[in-house]
Amino acid sequence: MKKFLLLLHEDIEKLNSLSPKEMEELVKAHMAWANKLSEANHLISGDGLKDSGVLIQGKDSVVKDGLYMESKELIGGYYLLQAENLDTVVQIAKECPCHLWGGTTEIRPIMEMDDYEQ
């Protein structure tokens, strides 16, 4: 099976406006979806990401704090999935709970050794 990284692009303002009950529903939806993916043998791993960290840039390795993009979106989490092909992962990703709260998913195939040899 091939591996795919599913990145969850979240609207920061929308997430910050969720009530505690809505946030709990979001977490429960992701946990239920992760269990479904695991039972279908598609889930390798997945986690939410904090909205802080560092960015290391350029040949001088300049370290910057905070958010990385001048955007109202951030990558709020990821799922590492396995499937036979991209079409299967696209169908799987359409059910990602982040879409219910206005989020966007991005699918990035993980390169395999054969990809480096071309």
UniProtKB/TrEMBL annotation:
Q: Where is the YCII-related domain?
A: 10-113
InterPro entries given in the database record: Dimeric_a/b-barrel, YCII
Leader sequence segment? none
One Pfam annotation, family name?
A: YCII
Would you identify the family this protein belongs to, as annotated?
A: Belongs to the YciI family.
Can you name this protein? YCII-related domain-containing protein
Q: Which organism is it from?
A: Mangrovivirga cuniculi
